[in-house]
Amino acid sequence: MNLFGKKKIKILAPVDGRAVPIAETPDKVFSEKVLGDGVTMLPENGEIVAPVAGTVATIANTRHAVCIEGDEGAEVLIHLGIDTVKLGGKGFTCLVKAGEHVRAGQKLMDMDLDFIRGRGYNTASPCILTNPNQVKKLTFRTGDAEAGKTAVMEYEK
User: What is the pLDDT at residue 3?
Assistant: First the structure.
């Protein structure tokens, strides 16, 4: 809480790497903010963690994306790579189930970066707040980020 009673909520990096502005994502659906606003992670490893505490709402059948409904109201989509839906689930291992409650920083998935890059796919991974109209004063942090520790987005509730 700050002086005026507004609570600042953090959305953590879902993977170790560098956070870049969403506008730099090599996919117009993300760069033009069709699904919401956020950052794109350029992953250094394939360990994907929950950016917020909440309930796993959806896991794509192809395991390339997961949505979490945060306890504080944030709806967060983590999209692993660009066009990786075409891999049909190969290169991804999911460690959670839809409906499961997770804590911020809890490991959700493994993404085999070498496999994915070896098939010609970009591993840039958008982390999107899909309900930005429900929050106030959304801010972003770019640069090096540690999964489950570095806040890449922050908003007021």
Answer: 56
Identify the CA nearest to 14 among candidates 129, 131, 157: 129
Which CATH homologous superfamily contains domain 8-156? Glucose Permease (Domain IIA) (2.70.70.10)
Per DSSP (E only), the strands in 3-150 are 8-12, 17-21, 37-43, 47-49, 54-59, 65-70, 75-79, 92-94, 101-102, 107-111, 125-129, 136-140, 143-145
* DSSP code string of 108-127: EEEE-HHHHHHTT----EEE
pLDDT-derived band at 5, boundaries 50, 70, 90: low
DSSP state of 24: G
pLDDT digits (tens, 9 = 90+) for 110-157: 999 999 999 999 999 999 999 999 999 999 999 999 999 999 999 998
* Active-site position among 15, 79, 80, 135: 79
Q: Known catalytic residue: 79?
A: yes
Each residue of 35-83: pLDDT tens digit? 999 999 999 999 999 999 999 999 999 999 999 999 999 999 999 999 9
